[in-house]
Amino acid sequence: MKRELALAWRYMRRYLWKYAVGIFALFMVDLINSAVPGITGSLVDGLTGRAETGFGLKDVQALIWRLLGMGALITIGRFGWRYFLFGTARSIERDMRRDLFGHLETLSMRYYNEHKTGDLMAHFTNDLQSIRELMGGTVITTFDASVMLVLVLWRMISNVNLRLTIAAVIPMILIIIGDLFFGKAIHRRFLAKQEAFSELTDQVQEAVSGIRVIKAFVQERRELLAFAVTNRNNKEKNLAVVRLIAIAIPLLDLTTGISLLITLLYGGRLAIYGEITAGQFVEFNSYVGMLVWPMIAVGECISSISRGTASLKRIRAILDEKADIVDEGDPAITSLKGGIELRDLTFAYPEAEAHPALKNISVRVAPGETLAIIGRTGSGKTTLVNLLERLWDTEEAGMISLDGRPLRDIPLAVLRRDIAYVPQDNFLFSDTVENNILFSVAQGTHAQVEAAARAACVHDNIMEFPEGYDTLVGERGVTISGGQKQRVSIARALMKDAPILILDDSLSAVDTDTEEQILQNLRALRRGKTTLIIAHRVSTIQSADHILVLEDGERAEYGTHEELLALNGLYRSVYDKQQLEAQLRSEHPDVQQKGGEEDA
Questions:
Q1: Whole-structure pTM value
Q2: Count of CB atoms within 10 A of residue 341's CB?
Q3: Alpha-helical runs (H) found in 134-161
Q4: Both ends of the chain: CA-CA distance in Å?
Q5: Which CATH number is associated with domain 331-418+498-600?
Q6: Which H or E run contains 27?
């Protein structure tokens, strides 16, 4: 609890003056509110005893004007505390959401491999909403209830009768006891409710992302049934909270009714025997009604604090997560030339430490050279690229060097800026084609975007779109074909004009003629710059300066295209197989070309 409250205080202290103004306005509203029953009581006493006191119309008018003035002050005060306190809670929610998003961006791929997207999304919705209520509504409720409780009890005792006050308050103590009991149970069930919502969010996100696969395999029914189970679980967890509240509210009403009954019976007796006036009786009944809220608020506060601290705990767990990739770079290094060296590179993922993804890989690439990497699926090609970009780190520093310096000596900002990467999944944002290409740079002109698109052989396709470069590609680029997505991703990388370019199987969805044109464009554009090409097709890589053949994470072969063919090893077998496939396709043109561009 202490750590959660410390996190809350870290954000609240930024807005202390706003809290102070809001709480002052709230205090003044409570002070004025607590005085209203006294004026009402004076009015009743004046009217019932006007023959003796000479209470007249002017006195009534004076009290009414007084009430109207108090009402105006209450209105102004309510606007003030709502503006400052609720507004501050919104500001804290914004700050925490910004910090949470920024921190998530610093975490390595290890974290995202271990946590579901839906769970992370729930932090940005349900958890931050609960925290906002804690920072705003709960602060208001706690202060308001405390002040009103003190003011109302003080006026009940000083203005009316001590014995009547004690008799009316005793049943209300049961409200506090009940709140303490129900608060703990609600806290436990609220945590379960949050987890169920995270699971539901994750399943919806996964289904929407994979809707093409679901439809392609006609699995809508199965997914619907699976969703029904998760949805039912979410409903049950929510109902568990609702059931407790449904039990608590009637008990609260019963207790309040008992208190009012005591007030009517005992207070009426006191009024009949002249121990209190009729005005005091009316005034006291108003106070009893005002006292119900502070008693209820105890439970509200306990419930809200339980929800808020549970959410703070979940948010704190993320903010306390340390990034695996720490920037230890030398600030003197401001740019890269493109030299790459791997020395006995070995790496295993945490979940598979007994089976290294890479074993004893050694390669040297001079600035301006092209290194191609080929191998079967799962041979470690993408892992090598991830290590080069420091999306993952090796256990031992120095296994990877750039320009003769250990990789960890390179500042992350320089490393990520000077490496242009085209990943396998070709992720596109739900934005225009132009903005997707511009994503890799801080700013750029349309002419630069068009030049990059032409180099990636996608300009003509873009011009066929309804809005050209202003065409929205949809979430994850669903409105364009696989080959077009790949080429837009290549154009995005070319916009950086980085010293190192990495193409991770980025030409698999384009036909061989387009592939050859793109490779020619790359050779012309990237003279003097380093390029790494990961591919399955030999035609993509045969002109590379060096070709690394991986097999089960190990360096199986290394050399030029001609040297590897002469070895008659794995590379030669892949080459011969693909040559045979090409021959068969030429003899049977009606057979769809393997690796050809796919429809959207």
A1: 0.71
A2: 20
A3: 139-155
A4: 51
A5: 3.40.50.300
A6: helix 16-48
The partner residues of 432 in beta bridges, in order of sequence, read 472
Pick the CATH number of 2-319 from 1.20.1560.10, 3.40.190.100, 3.50.50.60, 3.40.50.720: 1.20.1560.10
Sorted by sequence, the CB contacts under 8 Å of residue 167 that are 6+ apart come out as 262, 263, 266
| Tens digits of pLDDT across the chain (600 residues) | 778 888 888 999 999 999 999 999 999 999 999 888 888 888 887 777 654 565 667 777 888 888 899 999 999 999 999 999 999 999 999 999 999 998 888 887 778 877 777 678 778 888 888 889 889 988 898 899 889 989 999 998 988 888 888 888 888 777 777 776 776 777 678 778 878 887 888 788 778 777 767 776 677 888 889 889 989 998 988 888 888 778 777 777 787 788 888 888 888 888 888 888 888 888 888 888 888 778 777 767 777 787 788 888 888 888 888 888 888 888 898 899 999 999 999 998 877 778 889 999 999 999 999 999 998 888 888 899 989 988 888 877 668 999 989 999 999 889 989 999 998 877 888 888 899 899 888 888 899 999 999 999 999 988 988 888 998 887 666 667 778 888 999 999 999 889 999 998 888 778 888 888 988 898 888 888 999 999 888 888 888 999 999 999 999 999 999 999 999 989 999 888 888 877 777 766 655 444 433 333
